Amino acid sequence: MIWRRIEMPASSTFWELHVAIQDAFGWLDYHLHEFEVGSVAIGVPDDYAEKPIVPGWSATLSEQLGKVRTCSYLYDFGDCWRHTIHLEEVRESDGGGYPRCLAGENAAPPEDCGGVHGFQELLDTLNKPRSAAYRELRDWMKNRHAKVYWPFKPQAFDPAEVVFHDPAERLAQLDA
């Protein structure tokens, strides 16, 4: 199981939550995403979407998650990384910097590894260091990807190493 516990202000938008999730998983945020809160789809509006999508930067966590305590987050419609988001509690701010990654477990799958089944194949291949598939995977993780994922340590995760980026800057890149 791979999970993260992130603390955010209730006034945060779903766009800010999306950026925090991307940062907590170390992903590159170059695929589409969508939150489903009940029957409401929240994300980046798309002319080709089959249903209406509420812009993530205009929907706050407090207005949507006040009605339900769980929603789903889908990232990369091809690899289909589906997450379940649980609102654990709402409490007063302590005035500290947000978001915060409080806890988590295991390294996130490398971006574009092929979803759950591709990630399982990746883990299986890492256990066969003398194989041609291992060398090919190692080269892909070292040199042929937009991010260096080598050496990959499946059990490694330290919440203190998560660096959160500015969601406004990320949104400006989306508009560019």
UniProtKB/TrEMBL annotation:
Highest rank taxon of the organism: Bacteria
Plasmid pRiA4b Orf3-like domain sequence ranges: 2-160
Entry-linked SUPFAM superfamilies: MM3350-like
Protein name as annotated: Plasmid pRiA4b ORF-3 family protein
Organism: Dyella ginsengisoli
